[in-house]
Amino acid sequence: MMDKDIVDVRSLAVTAPNQAVVGQFDTLVDELYYYRPGVVDRLVELLEAFPEFPLAHVLVGYSLMTEGTLDAQPKARARLRRAEALPANRRERLHQEALRAWLDGDVLARAAAWERILLEWPHDLLAFRQCTGTLFWVGDKQYQAEVIAGQAGYWSSQIPGYGHFLSAKSFAMEEVGNYEVAERAARDALAIQEQDLWALHGLAHVLEMQGRTDEGIELLEDAARFLNDYNLFRGHLWWHLSLFKFTRGCFDQVLELFDREIYPKESTFYLDIQNGVSLLARLEFQGVNVGPERWERLAQASLASATQCTLWFTAMHHVMALVRSGRESAANATLKYLESAGKNCPQAALACELSRAAAAFCNDKPGEALERMLDLRQRHGELGASHAQQDLYDQIMVVAAQHLTDMTRVRQLLKARLSTRVQDVSSWKTFERHSRLVDGIEDGTAVRDALRWALVEPD
Known about the structure:
Helix content: 55-70%
CATH topology of the domain at 1-149: Serine Threonine Protein Phosphatase 5, Tetratricopeptide repeat
Order of helices and strands: HHHHHHHHHHHHHHHHHHHHHHHH
Distance between the termini: 71 Å
Shape: globular
CATH class of the domain at 1-149: Mainly Alpha
């Protein structure tokens, strides 16, 4: 029999065997959002000892779905069924509804379920972080920011988990261009926990978008002392450090980071694939010979996972790795998988078209690649990802236009790329000065230089 007086650390009623188990669960949720390693394994162990814990089953289901693979879905559905068979309160049933919608591919119903939870229980950290995180991957940054704004009045330093709210606020505000608020939230979160990777991530994005390259290098080189104590998300922070080094033209250091931290061995984790492919592509656009071995590592992972992918932003990266390693048949199989998935999923259909464009680019068909990407240019963001990650689209288009010697298009695309970093009068004035420099670009060397420009005062 369940005790109706059991509550979590934020005083929300929880259906669980006893208060001590909920305390363990609270600790695991805290560790999950601090990206500690092995959290899901410890959660499964908790459920083996105390299987009558519906919300814990749902969290395992959420974690499985976050992997972004087809083979994770039956495991997540099994967790949902176990949760559904147990007694649960209304909040917990709404969490089950969100997981069910996720499994059914209904992104609107998924967000609506979490939003209903937050309306009545604004301190539900699990609903808050799942809602904002998934909105990011469907490209709805404004909705993500609205969720943050709607919850802000309920959170304070007196509420356990406030740092997790602040780090989520930081990233959401950065992605809609509110850099001052984003930076303040990140630094406040880091004051609570100096090793908060999501807060470091939000701050790194602010520094990237504002062209504060030296500060970005200093921030992440200082974090290097503890990054590898955390789970696979750490690779994305190393990737951000590589972008700052890339801006400085330190390509040897970027390759060293790639081999040591970003993609040292084969990994099918979606962020590792995204980080690795986008970084090698950027380097090649700069004329750097990255060698076949690095592409081969990525291709081996893509062979194992490309037709399992359900986090659609990753799909184009898979196709690029496969084509760059000469595996046309595997790339074509991935495109067929995306085409089939796209019959019932608009995101998959868009991923298929962008992947076709990337395949054309990698097969030395810049005209086809550019045409395909320009046709979809205003929809690129629908696959989610940050401005920094989406920059790969822009770089492909710029380089394709350069290969076609269409310098008018090159200059237009370079200006459009820089315009995403404008957020106030000062940055607009800087952008105008950069635009005049872009108007003078006439050759490939100047294009490569411009692809590394940060939106700061031009030299």
